[in-house]
Structure formats: C-alpha cells, structure tokens
Amino acid sequence: MSSLILHKQLQLSPPSDDDRRAHDERVRDALGLGPLTIPLSVLARLGGHVNARHATLNCIVGSRERGYTLIEVGSSVSWSIALDLGTTNMAVLLYDNIAGSVKRRMSFENPQIAFGSDILTRMHHAMSPRGREVYDVLKKGINSAIRSICEAAGVSSRDVHALALAGNTVMSHFFLGLDISTIPVDPFVPVVRNPGFFTAAELALDLNPEALIYVFPNAGSYVGGDIVAGILSTGLYRSELPSVLIDVGTNAEVVIGTRDWMIVGAGAAGPALEEGISRIGKRASKGIIYDVQISGQDVTCKTFDEQKPEGICGSGMVSLLHALYNARIIDPSGSLDGAAPGVTAVDGEPAYAIPCGDEPLVIRQSEIQNFMKSKAAMFTLLLVLTRAVGIAFRDVAQIFVSGALGAGIDANKAAAVGMLPAWPARIVSARGNTSLDGALMLLRDAGLLETIGNLIGKITYKHMHDDPEFMKEFMGAVFIPHTNPELLKAE
Questions:
Q1: Do 243 and 391 belong together in one domain?
Q2: pLDDT tens, residue by residue, 207-217
Q3: Are 95 and 80 in contact (CB under 8 A)?
Q4: Domain range for residue 47?
Q5: 180 & 203 share domain
Q6: Phi and psi for 293 in degrees, rounded to 5?
Q7: 134, 172, 255, 410: which one has the fewest Cβ atoms less than 10 Å from its Cβ?
C-alpha cells in the first residue's frame, strides 16, 4: 500500500565530466518511479540541491492515476487534508504523511449558509447576477478552515501537499468554480462527473502551490462524491450479497448494491436532521442527546459522554419521535396533542419542551413535520430502489448508516417510526462520517484511485426528482409508521 503523498530521501552525486545528466534526469533516475511530472516552480529550485557534493535531497512526490508529480524538494515534513464538504458543515482532517497518522480533526460551518440553508436556494442565487458571491464565500471559508486546522496543529499550510475532497455534486461544482445552472433543470446534467486532480494554485487554495487536489467523482446530479467516498469507506463495493449505504442530511441518499452492481438515488429529506437548520439539531459530540425515553411524566435523555444536554443529533431525533409517539404526545401524522405533558407553544406554534438539562430543549411542530418528511423520503427511497433492482428488504445482508444518523442509531426505533424497514439490528451499523473516512482512506492508499474508477463504472443513478412511483409511495410514508405497515416487513 502506497500513500497518495510519498516522502523520498535521495543520495545524489554531483554532475561531472563522466555524468552530464540534467538535474531533472538525475532526480528521475534516483526516484525510479516511472512517469514523473516536475512543475516549473520545482525545477527552478533543483539546481541548488543537485549541485552540492553528495547531496541528500528530500523529495515530496504525489501519486496520480497515471504517473507521479514532484511537489516539493528540500522538505522533510509533509501533511495532507481530507475535507468533507457538506451543505451545512465542513469536516476537516489533518494527516501526517510521514508518520501515517491523523493529527487533528475540526468542523466548520459552511459559510454559504448565508445564501440559504438548502442547496436549491444557493443554486438559484448562483444563477443570479450576483451569483459569484456564492462561489467566493465558499473558497474563503475553505481557506479559513485550512488556516485554522494548520494553526491549531502548529503546521505551516505550505507543508500541506495534498487535499482530498468529497462533497455532493453541487458543492463540488461550487468548489471548482463550475456552472451549476444545468443541474437543477431537466435533464439535470452536471458539468463534470469525474473531476480528478488539480493543483492548489489552480484553485487558489492556501496550500503548497503544487499540492495535489483530488475531488471525488459524483454518481449523479444529486448523488455526489461524498457517497462515492462512503462506498469506499464502508467496503460496500466488495460485498457479495446486496448491501445498503444510507446517508441522511439535507438530502436522503441511498446506495444498494454488491461488488458487481450498484444503484443510487436521492430524495429531498428535508432539514430535520441537519445541524444549523433544526433549532436544536446538532452533530453527534459531547453533550448531544442520542436517546430519549418518556414514561408518564418522567423523561430521560442520554448524551454522548454523559454531558449536560446542548442539542440533539439525528439518532436522538429518531428516538425522540419514537418516544413521543409511544407516549401518545403525537399522533400518527406527527401532530402534537395540546393537552399532553410537556406540550407548550412558542411564538404561537405548538411545541414540545424536552425537560433535560438546565433549560428545556424545544422542538416545534414544524420541525416534527420536517422529520416526518425526512423519514418518509428515507423509507420511500429504499422501497423504490429495491423494487427497481428486483430485491426485497429481506434480501439485504448489511446496512451502513452515515451522515446525521450515523452515530448511535437504534435500528428498532427507526423501524418503529417507519424510517427504515424492520431490519434486524444486528445487520445495521452506524458508521459516522463515511465521506471524511473515505477521503482519508485515499490519502493513505493511492491504489484506491483505481478502485474508485472501477466502482463508479458500476453505478446506475436513478433520478427521483419527478419519479411517479416515489411521489406515490411518499404520501403513505408521511405517517408513523406508515399507512401500509406491511411494507416495512423485512423478514
């Protein structure tokens, strides 16, 4: 296994009457890697190193699909960054290429949220006369995140020699400065499917100018590189039996497949599970609720690391709605009972106050309805996609859950509210941020470039935007658990 960025220490003898090789030839021969691109900026610095008597030359080399690039000479430190570019948040990871270890992880709000919490609103703004603002604020935000994580780790951003980015199709296009106007309209076509490699200088990133920037390929207009990275991270592409990857955030995205075939789809899940949109919604971390139990007047909340409750994550939302339904505080449509314990009003809107912590966390009726749409989109996607490939829920061997649900999910509760089929809990695993994990895997193993190329060739994208079967089945799923509970059976 060879990492995306290699550190090579060369022992070079100086030029002589018996050895008149040019500097680049001398370095190429010593590296012995095969096809090697040496940028002009690096060529300009070779002379001072190669002319020295018996020079020791530290080289930072980047792997590409075909061949290598000499990124830096004279440096014995090297870092890479993995970036999950989400609609609401950016998760960033700093990786030590020399030690082969993760140095630091951080999360930042996507500054584009100033132009709308959902991707469609941002696209509309991007197509307006002031559309460049959407692109510029993202680039500034990414550079700010790079500086922040490097400063926190005591690292120079000049010593960052690679960045692997995974994001949905629209976010990847924003990052690359590409036109998005053909994505939200029929026939829903992006500019590029497999962007590949760029340099930091091309993209105006505050890294080493020759740093390799890899953008994961997308699988469709609304299924992006974050899902491809998730397929990589979970190992779904190696599955002999049908497996499922579920990612729920602003959208619900589903992959069903094996090592031989894959089908993917996305549906508008609504914002109920996404941090920054739902008022009490937070990503899984210390002090965030992942489980709620209601027994009469007693309410029990469990938080990560048993800290004081500060918000609720996706799996906590599932648990909360399950508890509210079982306690008859909400009915099958998700409507709050005004006479039930804990039900109050906020700005004239019915709400439920979760009595945990110093101050109750309040979820409003509109946010519960957002959740109902989210869980309906999730289940309907699964139903339509399994039907499309001619399998039943009972044929699925394993389920990976990531995104807003990917920490602490209770499969039984998710099935009870109709978000997932009634799959046995033993085959459902929460995998956290599979997008970031997949990007890290690539930094560690350049051989996965070939794997990515092979797996995207096996993906079929099923468009759900105006799919009549999706629209029809969705209506029955916006109830707890479903207007036809028989559809939830998986055994």
A1: yes
A2: 999 999 999 99
A3: yes
A4: 5-73
A5: yes
A6: -130, 135
A7: 410
Cα 413 to Cα 375: distance, rounded to the nearest angstrom: 12
User: Is-contact 108 89, C-beta < 8 A?
Assistant: yes
Neighbours of 296 (CB within 10 A): 7
Q: Are residues 66 and 174 in the same domain?
A: no
pTM: predicted TM-score of the whole model, two decimal places: 0.90
- Are 177 and 52 within one domain? no
The CATH number that applies at residue 25 is: 3.10.20.880
Q: How many residues are present in the chain?
A: 491
241 shares its domain with 347 = no
Judge contact between 417 and 481, C-beta under 8 A.
yes
State how far the Cα of 464 lies from the Cα of 377, in Å rounded to an integer.
10
CB 195 within 8 A of CB 215: yes
Q: Are residues 173 and 244 in the same domain?
A: no
Same structural domain, 198 and 59: no
pLDDT tens, residue by residue, 381-402: 999 999 999 999 999 999 999 8
CA 207 to each of CA 82, 150, 164, 428, 445: distance values in angstroms, whole numbers, following the listed order: 13, 10, 13, 39, 21
How far apart are the C-alpha atoms of 298 and 236, rounded to whole Å? 41
| Distance, CA of 141 to CA of 147 (rounded, Å) | 10
At 156-191, the pLDDT tens digits run: 999 999 999 999 999 999 999 999 999 888 888 899
Specify if 226 maps to a domain. Answer: no
